[in-house]
Amino acid sequence: MSFKPAMLQQHKMYDYNITRENSYPTPLANTTLLPLMFMSLATQKNAPTVLQTPSSLHSAYDFIIVGAGSAGSTVAARLSELPCCNVLLLEAGNVGPLLNDIPGYARNYYFDDINWMYKTTPQENTARLHVDRSVNWPSGKGLGGSSLLNAMLYIRGNKKNYDDWAEDGAKGWSYEEVLPYFLKLEDERDSRYYEPEYHSTGGPMAVESPNYHPIIEDPIFEAARNMGYEIVDPNAEKQTGFVEVQGSLRNMQRWSTAKAYLVPAEHRKNLHILTNAYVTKILFQNNRAVGVSFEVNGEMYVIGAKKEVIVSAGSVKTPQLLMLSGIGPKNDLKNFRIPVVADLPVGHNLQDHCSTPMNFALDSNLETADEQFADPNITEQYINHRKGILAGPFSAVAMAFLRGSCTKPEKDFPNFELYFNSGSTAVNKALSDVLIPGAYQQIFGPYENKPFYQCIAQHLQPKSRGYVKLNSTNPYDPPIINPNYYDDPQDLRDVVEGLRVCYKIGTSRAMRKIGSKPFATVFPGCERFSLNSDEYFACMARSLALTISHYVGTAKMGAVDDPRTVVDPQLKVKGIRGLRVVDASVFPILTSGNTNTPTIMVAEKAADMIKASTNC
Predict the structure, then answer these.
(1) Are the beta carbons of 259 and 47 closer than 8 angstroms?
(2) What is the distance between the alpha carbons of residues 186 and 175, in angstroms, rounded to a whole number?
(3) For 602, phi and psi rounded to 5 degrees?
(4) For the segment 162-206, what is each residue's pLDDT rounded down to a tens digit?
(5) What is the mean pLDDT of residues 232-249?
(6) Catalytic residue status for 550
(7) What CA–CA distance (Å, rounded) separates 504 from 523?
(8) Residue 582: which residues within 8 A CB-CB, separation 6 or more?
C-alpha cells in the first residue's frame, strides 16, 4: 500500500473522531487503511468551526436561521456578508462524518445519525411488500442537511417548472428570473460544459464529472444512441435525453453546502453557528416573530430576533415547527390546543418523486460492486488518484429524462427519470428489514453476491398530493407524513413507462454483450401477470416504492390572496412580520429532477431579496 504525502502539502489536518468514524458501516471501519483515508480526505475541511456552548451566544441577533441544510447554510453565509448584521444559525444535528466525503459511500449513512429516519404512513396505492406499507424517508441531519445524505447529482430541473411557478402566482420565479442564481451558485469544473449561457465558474458549489466509469456505462449510452435517444446536458438548452452524470463534487469528494458556504464564512465575527440545537418554537409578539426557543443537552434557551426568523428546516421539520408555533390549519391546531397565530395551509401540498427499481443480472465473470468496495487496491486508487468506484456517486452512473415512448418529443418536458447504478448486495440487504418476510429473498436472494445493476424509474410530474401533520405537541415526536403516492393514477402510468424503457435498454444488443438480462425472479403477488408486461411493471411499482428524497411543497409559495399558499413570492409567511421560510417546502410545484440544486438556488435568491430590504 502506497500513499503520496504530497497530497497533504499546504493543507491543515482537521480533527476527527475515530470512534465515531469507525461506528459507521463502511469497508474501512477498523482497518489500517482508515488513517490514510483520513489524511487524504482532510485536504478539504468538511465543516466550519462551530460554537461549543450556548453561553457564547448573544441575547439577540438580527437574523436567526433554523436549520443548516442546503438552504439554511446558503442563506446564513450570504446574510453574514452584510457587515451591519449578525446572524445565528441553529442546527439540530452535528458535523458530518469525514468518511461521508467519499462519493461511493453515499448510501452507507442512510440509517445513522445524519438521517432523521422518517417513515411514512401506510400507503394505499403502493408499498404492498413493505412492512406496514410504510416507506423509509431519508432526510439529512447536520451541517449541510440533505447535502450530507443525498446522491450529489447536479440537476436544476426543467425550464417549464419555474415558468409554471410564476404562472401559479410565484411572481419573480420564472426560469429567466432564476437562471442568474443557478449561475451564481455554480463552479463548473468540466471544460466540456463551459457554455456561458448555461454554466459558470467561481461559484460556491463545485460541479464535476465523476472519475468512475463502470462496465455498464458505455453500453447504456450505445443502446440509447441505437434507439434514437440524444445525449444531452440537462442543465442547458434541452433536458430530454440520456445524461452523463455530474455531481456536487470537488476533487471527487462530496461538496456539501457546509463546505461550500459555511467554511468560507466561518471567520466572520457576525456569524455564529451552533450545532445540537433543537428549535422547539418560534416566539411571537403582536403577529411578529421575535425569537425562538431551543434545547441543547437538556437545557432550554431563548434568543431574540431583531429583524427576522428564517425557517430552513426542510419540507418535514419546517411545517412541524410552524404548526407547533401556531401557524397552520386552524382546526388541526385547535385539536392540539395550540393557540392559532395564523390560519394557513401549512403541511398541505406535499409532493415527492416515487420510484421503483428493475434489476438486471450481468456476466458472472464480472467483479461485483461489493468486491470493488472491499478491495484495498480500489481504496488505494481513490486515495492516490481519485479514481474508481469510490470516486462517483454510487446512486447513478448514467441518467435519463424521457417523455413517453418518443425519442425526440416536440415538447421538452419529460414525464419520467431513469437512474442506472451498479447493484450492491450490501445496499439491497437494507431492504430485508423494510420488506415483509420472504419478499427480499424471493426477489434478490438468488442474485446475492453476483454482479448486477439496477435501472430505477421515477415519475417527474407528480399529480398526487400528500401532507405533513402533527402527531403530538411534543416537538421531538416525528410528524405524520403521507406522500399519498399514486393517488393520481397518472403517476403510476409514468413510472410504468419508465420501467418499459429500462427493460428495452437492459435487453438491448449493446447490454447483452455484458450479459445483461432481467432478474428471472418474480415479485411476490405479481405471478398472475405476464413477465415484463405493463401489467407486471405496474404490479412491481405497487409492490416496492423508493423515495429519492425530493420532498417539497409543504409551505407553498404564491400569491398572497391564494388560499393554497403559506408564503408570498418574497418567502414571507402571510400575515406575520419578521418570518420567512427558505427551503424546498416553498416550492409550489416539484421540479423535474433532483432537488438539492434548486433548493440552493431558492436560498441564493432569498438572500438577495432579504439584503435588498436591509439597510447597512
Answers:
(1) yes
(2) 16
(3) -60, -40
(4) 999 999 999 999 999 999 999 999 999 999 998 899 999 999 999
(5) 97
(6) yes
(7) 19
(8) 71, 72, 75, 310, 311, 312, 571, 602, 603, 606
